[in-house]
């Protein structure tokens, strides 16, 4: 199975529904709670000018109407190569941002 699709399934399980959006266009109507994620810079391991290992990275944001700080520990436990970057409120919604490698 495609690694991104595997990640997508994990994110669905973590948020508890299918409201998981990969690089959604502005025209998409988003339902909450949800996860929005985008491809990141990735991590390339090089030797002698050649990439011998590359891991995709993703910028992932869990969005909830109510504060749900338990999600931080749940995500960190479910995805080993993951870092919580920050929590913030925008448009009266609680956002929990992560950078993860998968």
Can you walk me through this structure?
- The protein is of the alpha+beta class and 102 residues long.
- The protein has one domain (3-101): 2-Layer Sandwich (STM4215-like).
- The protein is built from two helices and seven strands.
- The chain has helices spanning 3-15, 70-78, and strands at residues 20-22, 34-39, 43-47, 50-55, 57-64, 82-90, 93-101.
- The strands form two sheets. It has a five-stranded mixed β-sheet with strand order 1-2-5-7-6.
- Strand 6 and strand 7 form a beta hairpin.
- The longest helix is centred in the first third of the chain and has 13 residues, at 3-15.
- The chain starts with a helix and ends with a strand.
- The mean pLDDT is 95.
Strand order, main sheet: write it out: 1-2-5-7-6
Alpha-carbon distance between the termini?
A: 13 Å
| Domain count | 1
Q: Secondary-structure element sequence?
A: HEEEEEHEE
- The total strand number stands at 7
CATH topology: STM4215-like
